[in-house]
Amino acid sequence: MRPLIAGNWKMNGLTEDSANLARAIRSGLGDLAPEVLICPPATQLAAVAAILDGSGILAGGQDCHTKRHGAHTGEISAAMLRDAGARYVILGHSERRAEQGETDALVAAKVEAAVAARLIPIVCVGESAADREAGRQEAVVGRHLAGSLGAEFKGVVAYEPIWAIGTGRVPTSADIAAMHAFIRTELVRAQPAGAETRILYGGSVKPGNAAEILALPEVGGALVGGASLVAEDFLAIIRAA
């Protein structure tokens, strides 16, 4: 299964910054094996997608609404993302679950909307530090999987332990492998395409640890946050795959 290296730029990048970063990643990529995805802010999506056009690097969105159109001020639909050049969309990121109160049911509705717009959803799951310390990590992640994916999920799952996102803390290789094995078991049990679903790891992925993480069983790529904002770091992670 071809690995996927996805960069989540989050709420970073004005026009010139985003254009320069996209060009630097495109020019430095070369003939590399992984599938590469960049998810810029919605305001930069069309411009970044145009810069990446023809390079093999894909563009994606960071969220979408459940509806195709309507009176939803400030929102963006999956169809709008597709029209702007997106081919993927990140859904259920822990930052949105925490800051916007997104539930598994809402994420599942967004998955349905994304698929209807011909976008591939990347659904994020992960536990907090308190859940990990209490030994509830599998219960929490299992609940996210059961509630967020829908009945016939055809997309990507990203395991992001909340306590590792942007903190520099990284689970041990054994912990990552164990959770990815658990996710695979749950996907195979519950989803028709569960055996083929890529499972990404995200949470303080950097050039120095990427090769070790990406070599672990059932790790099908990485969802990269801060390191995707530095072209040399992101390219190094891509090369590690």
Low-confidence stretches: none
Overall radius of gyration = 17 Å
Q: What's the SSE pattern?
A: EHEHEHEHHEHHEHEHEH
Q: CATH superfamily name of the domain at 35-198?
A: Aldolase class I
Strand order of the largest sheet: 7-6-5-4-3-2-1-8
Question: Could you name the key traits of this structure?
Answer:
alpha/beta; TIM Barrel; 8 strands
What does this structure look like?
With 241 residues, the chain is of the alpha/beta class. The protein has a domain of 164 residues: TIM Barrel. It has ten helices and eight strands. An eight-stranded parallel beta sheet has the order 7-6-5-4-3-2-1-8. Helix 3 links the parallel strand 3 and strand 4. Helix 1 runs parallel beside helix 10, helix 5 crosses helix 7 and helix 9 runs parallel beside helix 10. The longest helix is centred in the last third of the chain and has 18 residues. It is globular and about 45 Å long. The N and C termini lie close together (12 Å). The model has no long low-confidence stretch (mean pLDDT 96).
